[in-house]
Every structure is written in C-alpha cells, then in structure tokens.
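User: Here's a structure from my thesis project, written as structure tokens. My advisor, Dr. K., wants to see whether a designed sequence matches the one we expressed. Can you design one independently, without my sequence as a hint?
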C-alpha cells in the first residue's frame, strides 16, 4: 500500500471517522484551556486555535487567517456548540481577543490569564507540530483544516493519562481504542 493510497483514504473517510469518534466521546471537563499557534501554509501565515479540557482532550481545533475578536468569538461558538454547556472556567493567554469573546458569549464563567496557567494547551500543540514536520508542511488551508480536525479527534482516542492508571488497565484501554 502506498502513501498516496493512505492519503486519499484519509481525505475520503477521515471526516466520517472523526464524526463517529466525536459522537462516542464520553464528554469533556468543565475547564477549557485556549490558545493559538502560528502555522505557515503555502507561505501564508494562519492561526491554529485550539481548545483543550483539563484532561488534555482536544475539544476543538479551528484554522483561521485572522487573530482578532471576531475570530475568537467564532472559536468560542464552535467549542460551545460541540461541548453542549458552558465551561466553568476558561484559561487563556493575555490576548485581548479572548476577553472580548468571553465577555460577549460566556460572561458567567471564570476567565483566568495567569502566567504558566496555559501550559496544558501549549503542550498539546506538540503532536500537531510533529505530524506537520512529518508531512513536510501543509499545502492548502482547506486540506489543513480538515486534517487538523481529524488529527485532534484521533489524538483524543489514543491520548490516555498513563501516569494516572495501572499498566493492566492501560492495556485494556489500548485494546478498546484499537477495537473502535
């Protein structure tokens, strides 16, 4: 089987598998960590916005060309739609766009912006960067958005807090993940 066959399979069936995995997901926590990272696609700079819950599960990934209040509001609306109810607490960096979206969409939740509090989501960018390097960068914004959302969903399936569970339980969870 060639790499091109796998790439075409991912384009055709990746989003369907991701939707199915999202439906089977057990739910997210009540604290969200939100951050953005710069991504170059075909020489143009984009912003990859990511929302992660307290367990390290990626709630939503959103690729945009802007980094302003309207873009932050779109991200908040997306993850509120996928999450269902409001988070109790949101942790972000001190970018003013987050404050705008927080005040307008979910003013009841706590908004924390202390230094180093956002390290959980900063660490969640690493697997995406590894995949991006392996692919030798991303070529189109549309395909990058599709790939990154599917990658985040599949990453949730295989991301277990191994340091918190026994080895026998970890093996059982791994086998269940591969059966899905």
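Assistant: Designed independently from the structure alone:
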């Amino acid at each position: 089987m060639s790499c091109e066959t796998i790439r075409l399979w991912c384009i055709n069936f990746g989003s369907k598998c991701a939707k199915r995995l999202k439906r089977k997901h057990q739910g997210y926590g009540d604290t969200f960590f939100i951050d953005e990272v710069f991504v170059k696609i075909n020489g143009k700079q984009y912003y990859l916005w990511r929302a992660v819950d307290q367990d390290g599960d990626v709630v939503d990934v959103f690729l945009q060309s802007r980094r302003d209040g309207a873009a932050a509001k779109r991200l908040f609306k997306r993850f509120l739609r996928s999450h269902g109810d409001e988070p109790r607490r949101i942790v972000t960096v001190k970018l003013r766009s987050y404050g705008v979206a927080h005040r307008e969409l979910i003013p009841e939740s706590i908004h924390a912006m202390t230094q180093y509090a956002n390290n959980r989501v900063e660490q969640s960018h690493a697997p995406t960067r590894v995949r991006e390097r392996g692919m030798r960068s991303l070529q189109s914004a549309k395909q990058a958005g599709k790939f990154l959302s599917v990658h985040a969903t599949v990453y949730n399936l295989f991301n277990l807090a191994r340091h918190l569970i026994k080895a026998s339980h970890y093996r059982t969870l791994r086998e269940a993940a591969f059966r899905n």
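When you compare it with your expressed construct, this may help: The chain has one domain: 3-179.
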